[in-house]
């Protein structure tokens, strides 16, 4: 059902009007379209408990992304919702996203993932920037930005990430050789988890964990398993106060605690290790020592704050990038011609940049488009959210300051009004000069965007470069994979891919 909304752009109202708006709800004018009140926004928001029950019946914990898309089809480009105790206004249009982000204020705040904060309270652990808010968030974030997300840091990260990419390729070649069939068919996810953890650890700690070897440290494998478990146990707790689940000693809460304990134990071990080394060595290191050591030497944040944010970066950098790479390989396996096009771009970039990796990364727009395209169809985060700091008007509805507004990122990526032929995986759509305004938001936006963004981007680009230069990717016919929500969006079944070495795969 299409809602009739006569007005799409925000109406900038004189202040006196705003007052009337909040008191009267509706305001009529002959020259302006009617601005409707907050309570007129369509959707189910009156009975949170009943909605939670229905959500549960629809297996909403796994289908959140599809339910959101369906809601936009039912209600139009804006709807209001209350599930359990969690109330929000949902939007889908890039132009509306721009209005929301403009109203995010000086200390942007997203939805608090309660189970994560509950764990930290329970174990008396400090929050990193992921979970901090207000001035505490800002002061930490400013320091971290320089060391983690500033483009300048890429010079340091790229050679490290390239090293891991090369090792990954060598490992695949070995697997192919061992198979005796000149190809390797496998569910790559385990390998990609290891690649991602090895990459992020090298950048954070300046040291290899050795995950590209045949026998790996069982603790590292445990860390990987704990992250998956942590995400999985978060989603069922999103709509129920974790305090309640904790009091009744529910299994999901206990598993969640166990998962975070595992994550922090491993992160603490890595951090302690570097910290000890740093205290022994005196003087400045010759080569880039990694994010953690740089932050410790910089001495602008407390050790506890550094530890908390570094642990978050480490945990946030495994499933997110590896799953995005898996989806990309899956999409490329479906389109051999596109794969060739990308391969040609990489070959040309390699030749032109003459060994300068940073230069090379500037010459692969189609590879970058492929990653954007993957994140459009398979975003890690189903939505972006902000508590707006001021009143706004979206789709001609008045939304008061303090409201939680969610942009349905998954729904937006598949909306034919936003992306022509959305079902088609077309990296070239990102090359055109046509408006990309607020359409590429997989890492969020503004000062609260993903802190790991630059690391993730470089890591994924270098991975694709190496893979394209070495292997052809194929998939089994008749394999359609969809997303399932486990806090992040994951493939709903294993993706089996076949890797063949380039020279002999004709
Ligand atoms: C999940 O309705 C759906 O980057 C909820 O690397 C709203 C929500 C809130 C916060 C989002 C979350 C969703 C998805 C996962 C995100 C998270 C914020 C950060 C986190 C997007 C959309 C993620 C994956 C971080 C995780 C770091 C952590 C492991 C230490």
Automatic annotation (TrEMBL):
One of its GO terms (biological process) is cellular response to peptide hormone stimulus. Keywords: Cholesterol metabolism, Heme, Iron, Lipid metabolism, Membrane, Metal-binding, Mitochondrion, Monooxygenase, Oxidoreductase, Steroid metabolism, Steroidogenesis, Sterol metabolism, Transit peptide. GO terms for cellular component: mitochondrial inner membrane. Its cofactor is heme. Belongs to the cytochrome P450 family. This is Cholesterol side-chain cleavage enzyme, mitochondrial. PROSITE patterns: CYTOCHROME_P450. It catalyses: 6 reduced [adrenodoxin] + cholesterol + 3 O2 + 6 H(+) = 4-methylpentanal + pregnenolone + 6 oxidized [adrenodoxin] + 4 H2O. Pathway: Lipid metabolism; C21-steroid hormone metabolism. It is an enzyme of class 1 (oxidoreductase). It is a peripheral membrane protein. It is found in: Membrane; Mitochondrion inner membrane; Mitochondrion membrane. It comes from the Eukaryota. Its EC number is 1.14.15.6. GO terms for molecular function: cholesterol monooxygenase (side-chain-cleaving) activity; heme binding; iron ion binding. The keyword Membrane applies. A cytochrome P450 monooxygenase that catalyzes the side-chain hydroxylation and cleavage of cholesterol to pregnenolone, the precursor of most steroid hormones. Catalyzes three sequential oxidation reactions of cholesterol, namely the hydroxylation at C22 followed with the hydroxylation at C20 to yield 20R,22R-hydroxycholesterol that is further cleaved between C20 and C22 to yield the C21-steroid pregnenolone and 4-methylpentanal. Mechanistically, uses molecular oxygen inserting one oxygen atom into a substrate and reducing the second into a water molecule. Pfam families: p450.
């Amino acid at each position: 059902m299409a809602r009739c909304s006569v007005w799409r752009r925000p109406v900038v109202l004189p202040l006196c009007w705003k007052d009337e708006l909040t008191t009267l709800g509706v305001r009529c004018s002959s020259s302006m379209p009617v601005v409707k009140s907050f309570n007129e926004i369509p959707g189910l928001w009156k009975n949170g408990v009943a909605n939670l029950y229905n959500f549960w019946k629809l297996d909403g914990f796994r289908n959140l992304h599809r339910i959101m898309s369906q809601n936009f089809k039912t209600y139009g480009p804006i709807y209001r919702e209350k599930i359990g105790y969690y109330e929000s206004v949902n939007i889908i249009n890039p132009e509306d996203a721009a209005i929301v982000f403009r109203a995010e204020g000086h200390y942007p705040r997203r939805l608090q993932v309660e189970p994560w904060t509950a764990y930290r309270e329970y174990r008396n652990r400090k929050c990193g920037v992921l979970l901090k808010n207000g001035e505490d968030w800002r002061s930490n974030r400013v320091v971290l930005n320089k060391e983690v997300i500033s483009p300048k840091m890429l010079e340091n990260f790229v050679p490290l990430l390239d090293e891991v990419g090369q090792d990954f390729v060598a490992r695949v070649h070995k697997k192919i050789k061992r198979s005796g069939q000149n190809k390797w068919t496998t569910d790559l996810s385990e390998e990609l988890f290891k690649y991602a953890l090895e990459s992020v650890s090298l950048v954070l700690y300046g040291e290899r964990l050795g995950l590209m070897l045949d026998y790996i440290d069982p603790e590292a494998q445990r860390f990987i398993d704990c992250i998956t478990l942590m995400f999985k146990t978060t989603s069922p707790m999103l709509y129920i106060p974790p305090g309640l689940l904790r009091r009744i000693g529910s299994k999901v809460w206990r598993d969640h605690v166990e998962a975070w304990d595992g994550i922090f134990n491993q992160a603490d071990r890595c951090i302690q290790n570097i910290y000890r080394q740093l205290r022994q060595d005196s003087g400045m290191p010759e080569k880039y020592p990694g994010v953690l050591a740089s932050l410790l030497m910089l001495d602008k944040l407390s050790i506890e704050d550094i530890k908390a944010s570094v642990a978050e970066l480490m945990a946030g950098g495994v499933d997110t990038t590896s799953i995005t790479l898996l989806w990309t390989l899956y999409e490329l396996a479906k389109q051999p011609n596109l794969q060739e096009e990308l391969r040609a771009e990489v070959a040309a970039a390699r030749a032109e940049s003459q060994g300068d990796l940073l230069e090379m990364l500037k010459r692969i727009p189609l590879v970058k488009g492929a990653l954007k395209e993957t994140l459009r169809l398979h975003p890690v985060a189903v939505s972006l959210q902000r508590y707006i700091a001021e009143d706004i008007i979206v789709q001609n509805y008045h939304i008061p300051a303090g409201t939680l507004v969610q942009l349905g990122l998954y729904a937006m990526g598949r909306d034919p009004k936003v992306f022509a032929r959305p079902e088609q995986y077309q990296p070239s759509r990102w090359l055109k000069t046509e408006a990309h305004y607020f359409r590429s938001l997989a890492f969020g936006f503004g000062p609260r965007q993903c802190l790991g963004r630059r690391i993730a981007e470089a890591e994924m680009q270098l991975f694709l470069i190496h893979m394209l230069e070495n292997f052809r990717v194929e998939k089994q016919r008749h394999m359609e994979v969809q997303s399932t929500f486990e806090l992040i969006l994951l493939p709903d079944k294993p993706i089996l891919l076949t890797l063949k070495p380039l020279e002999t795969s004709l």
